[in-house]
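Page 47, continued from p. 46.
Same chain as before, 283 aa.
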Amino acid sequence: MNKKVKEYLLITLGMFMVAAGLYFFLMPDNLAIGGANGLAIVLNHWIPSISVGAFMIIINIILFIIGFLAIGTSFGIKTIYASIGTSVIVSLFEKFLPYYNSPTEDIILQLIFGVLVSAIGMGIVFNQNASTGGTDIIAKILNKFLGIGLGKGVLIADLAIVLGAGFSFGFELGMYSLLGVIVNGFVIDSTIEGMNLSKSVSIISEHSDEIKKYIVEELGRGATIYYAEGAYTRRKKDVIVTIVDRKDFIKLRSFIKDIDKNAFVTVNNIYEVLGDGFMDIES
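Result:
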């Protein structure tokens, strides 16, 4: 599949998840967990004649205009597509499911499922080098003009929205929203790490030539060979080091097991790999 097509399919999946988490779980109980989405929920409370989806579109357009004027054209087509697209999907939900109510009366369940679904969706979008707009743009503006770090900028913007939720919907809902902001960040990071997870594998074997050939020819991966000496035996040995994804690691482990049950293998999780065969270093 074409790389660009795959990227946009994944971004679209992430958009639908963000919109679904917001509309089906967070919006019914006015849980504003930051971002343009959360700000739209707060504004809708004060101006109910404008839907949440419409507010999201308006907020993102305004932020993009400010962003273009303040920090240039660094957002990219994918970010515009993801942010406006998510807003449109919410608007479609509001149009075709206008009287949707909470599936449960337990606000904690609503918060947990809403954050999980939307944060996983955001993680998918972020992993394609895009974003859903909102507080990301505010953070970049704060970073450029006030020197505030991007992470702190997002936190400041989200906390301001949470305070707005507390003022609009009461202290208790404000606290739930704050909890959602905190959990949201952890889930997004975990999603990105999980999608990018690779395995760094070090192999010492009497059948190193066969293993090297399998890695290069069958798995289509590269490897680095280190020449080592056993501290006890004083024997010269090859140490094969390669990085593979989870699927290829299972194949490699099975191959090693079949040809050399005495092989010595160490495995480490790698959460980001940049370069040939993996993520583009420029992204």
